[in-house]
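Input sequence (484 aa), recorded before submission:
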Amino acid sequence: MELVVGLDIGTTAVKAVLFQRDGTVLAIAEKLVTTYYPEPGWAEQDPVEVESKALEALRDVIQHSAVKRESIKAIGISCAMHSLICVNETGIALSNALIWSDGRAKMQADALSKKEIGARLYDKTGVPIHPMSPLVKLIWMKETGFNAYKQASHFISLKEYILFHWFGERMIDYAMASATGLFNKDTLSWEQEALVLAGITEAQLSNVVAPTEVLNGIRVEVAEKIGIQKETPFVIGAADGQLANLGIGAILPGEVAITVGTSGAVRQLVKDSRLSKQQGTFCYAFTEQYKIVGGPTNNGGIVVQWLKEVLHNEDEMEDFLKKAETVNVGADGLFFIPYINGERAPIWNQNATGSFYGLKITHTQNFIIRAVLEGITLNLYEIYQDVKQIAGEPERIFVNGGLARSKTWLQLVADIFGKEVCIAESPQSSAWGAAWIALVGIGVEHTLEAIKDSIHIEKVIKPNVENHSKYKRIYEEWKKLIPK
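Predicted structure, token format:
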């Protein structure tokens, strides 16, 4: 039996998933990762801890499945975007990893967005000017005299940190490089104008390779800790967004993926660069043939979790969300703007805040739950409008992420978007995308598109036509509140 592992290094957890070649999940191991908030607006992770959790996840998924070492054909890697670590020549971290939600560089982002060079770099890199971007983080480091920045010999992501410590090589794939804001999405090379602005050189960055690049010769002690053969090939893979689209089967023109975990995103694969005039969307490289366009939101499942905690609700999540079904469409005029965590798309404003509008004495807990779910989903719909403008009208919508386990929320997506919503049998889309890239890298599979034959659509949610008609009117009222 041919087996493959997808290692998914996410924001809240590192997950290792063991697959059969046909996509069947045999085992999963998940290790939570700690995020630290040393100052308001800052968000960091310890790269030593993340690497350790990656080792543990791989070890556990192999041990618990009791598979033979030689049956694992390859391991592919997915990783969350926009992390930045300052390291010395030997790979020792001089700083924690500043992750995507770190907002310390908002002053630098505001200043850069008002300059001509900001618009020019967006055109070249496809990365909106925002504190999430490692480019903007580096500018903050330079301008504030950040000690780790001054002492660093290299600047890398969490994936690069792990690869260096496991293989002794400095390399980064197109997708992870593209998310830095330092990489030209069209020439697939580091963008010199961005490097000058960040105050660094190309020598301080990793070599850029295709997502199918195979890494051999893992350090013996690492292989022993994981429980694999030293000869087991690793494939570098890509970023979690691109691999989520691949792993859910949203590959062809007209196929859009909506992911909602802690955060969220609307994404579509395309074969040429496409940018919005308002800088409302990203365009990142994936392979030499594919790029991905879309918009990310800071406010996905984290908002639901916040509400659950505020209400001191101890129900299971699905039971909590089902309370929204007792309330009519529109929550009796209660609107919710979900920007409690600042926001990326569609407004790209780290200073944005959330709010309820239209609150009445008759609004109970269930109305508030419905309004929050509607607010999150209407925000995704607003992002979708920008993506649709540059990528065209979608034919199918694929949904994945934590909220995709909620029947209540899935029906809400179908009703607001007015489209059929497809849900894959396995929710492990980023890990399966990484595993598939690994199979292509070692030559067992030959195309990305062939993954569709191994993705089983569990169900298709059809929209309620009457509800969609109501939501079109609600959306027009909701979006008027955003500037306020």
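Checked by second reader. The mean pLDDT is 96.
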